[in-house]
Amino acid sequence: MDNTRAETHVRLLAEDQLRRALTSPRYRWLDEDFQAGGQPPEEVGLHRVGAVLSALRQVGVLSRSTAARLGAEFADALAVRGLHDPRGLATPAPARPGGSTGTGAIAAGAAAQPVSGAPGGHYLAVPVGAVIPAEWNGHQGEVHVLALVLAPDRAAIATSFVSSWREAAATTGGPPAPQPSFPPFGSSGVTDDQGRHYRLTLEIAGGGWHEAGVLALSAVPPPDTRWLEMPVSPARSIRIDLTRAPVVQVRHERHPAPSPGELLLGAVAETMLGGGQLVGMTATLLASGLAEVADALTAVSLLAPDSPAASHLAALCARRAIEVRGPWSSRARGTGLPGPWVSVLSGSRRVDGPQGALSASAVLPEIDGARFVLAGLSSWERHASLLVFAWGWTHQPREFRPQQPFSWWARDDGARWHVGRVAIHDAAPGTFHLELTPPLHPDAKSLDVILTGREGRVTATLPLTWPGRPAEPQDQDISY
User: Fold this and answer.
1) 285 CA to centre of own chain
2) In which region does residue 301 sit, left (phi positive, over 0), alpha (psi from -120 to 50) or beta (all else)?
3) Is the pLDDT of residue 477 over 70?
């Protein structure tokens, strides 16, 4: 895995930063340091070397252990000259068993665990769109039954409970008023058209007044199943038609694979815009060291000297008041931001998104060894969220993956772009929440969800038909 050119480049950079630290003027007081001399040169060197090590590790030309060793050697060289306190926060932590490192400026980060590929076979997403009065955790509200997802290895129903924050009605004597608990609805489970019975198991992820849930079926219905029926009260049930033809348009486009360096800098930019794959601190480290990072990626032939990705990132850094040094400073001034970035930046303060939960769903074709199924959309004033089922990919930890450099964007028919970010809060196993910001256009009628991978792009056009505001009487109601 280790690249000789990469290691040599890091050592030369460390020597240059060490000379800079030794020859720069010293100041007695911290405020003098920043006013007259800027950030102490040894700290600057630690951050620049750390940024390069992080970048080279993430694109796969340095192992985690080698990156940690090189970072520690540079910190030791500063320490023996009295220029660095080994007890300081910027000190790189030693590599731990298994290869992970600590959280210092030159820490290499955690690695994603290997994930088995997506199983072959048939995938199906059936929108449901039922709204049921319900009570959860002592509060009234509504359960939105969004979509049924069928895959070779699992079957599940995506739901969303929206609380009205009104306390559940108290009953005096006798059992409580008939009302389904937040799913599963009683103990009856689901029955298909052949009379086969499936138990339901609830997996829920807390979200305050909005609780997303996944009802897992005890088995995958056979291919000849025509419908499923789920009781929601002693007198009513929901019938889910499995023969409904998909109406969502999905397009799959192929493109040549960009270099890992281009992909990494793109991930940094998307994270700075509010989406992306990276932890915010990692993106900031790489952006603030763009001059050194771009030089290093070019030195190992993973980034072209005139890289558009680096130029766009430099322009974004200038927009965000992050110092851009060297030739990238002039490139930043001469480079405009891509249209989607401008749209996201200009809408960052909007609070006019529609409120509602929709059964918008779609099956995406395989991309970079992974499969994704969109299973319902929720929208609020500041952002929207898609529940996504995943195979062959996991959303944790949050880091760049050269073989699966997934980038999520969306564009509504109100001409607004939205950058996607996988939410960090818990979700049911095999699922995640994709948060889209800024909010949707209040009059949007459709949404293009765009997933870009290493060698292709998938676009699904979801219809947006709003039933009304969550937890209000005008929503569709299945009464008792």
Assistant:
1) 19
2) left
3) no
Distance linking the first and last C-alpha atoms of the chain: 63
Dist CA 345 CA 336 (whole Å): 13
Q: Looking up tokens 């300081």, which residue turns up? A: 88
**226: Cα within 13 Å, side-chain hemisphere:** 3
In angstroms, the CA 169 to CA 172 distance is 10
Model confidence at 123: pLDDT above 90? yes
**What are 317-334's pLDDT values in tens digits?**
999 999 999 899 999 999
9-22 tens-digit pLDDT: 999 999 999 999 99
How far apart CA 131 and CA 173 sit, in angstroms, is: 29
- Measured in degrees and rounded to the nearest 5, phi and psi for residue 58 equal -70, -30
DSSP string, 81-133: TTS--TTSTTSPPPPPTTS---SSTT-----PPP-PPPPPS--EEEEEEEEEE
**For position 179, what pLDDT does the model report?**
46
Of 40, 186, 14, 125, the C-alpha closest to 358 is 125
The alpha carbons of the chain give a radius of gyration, in whole angstroms, of 26
Contact 405, 263 (CB under 8 A): yes
Mention every residue, 6+ apart, whose C-beta is less than 8 A from residue 398. Answer: 277, 278, 279, 422, 424
- d(Cα 274, Cα 345) in Å, to the nearest integer? 9
Decide: 54 and 70 in contact? Cβ < 8 Å. Answer: no
